Amino acid sequence: MSDKLSANFAEGRGYASVKTIVLTNQEATRHNILFVLQRLAGLQPTPLPSTPKRLLQLSRAHPEDAVVFYYAWPRGGLRRTVLPAAL
Description:
Blueprint: H1 2-10, H2 30-40
């Protein structure tokens, strides 16, 4: 799904580049999701030892950037909302 979404934004949508961050299974923790959102907001959250190294390379999103947050969950449903009100 992320490949199709990235290709859709890259093809004919006027974006010079598209960066995709995929967190699946054990990487899709509350901490890692909030870590990504905080980095994009320009904050410097504290990484855990389990934080994927590629997330440490993220930089702040600029006003001209578009950020798309796509969250999917198993058929069992969403148990808890992870988005903080400030973001």
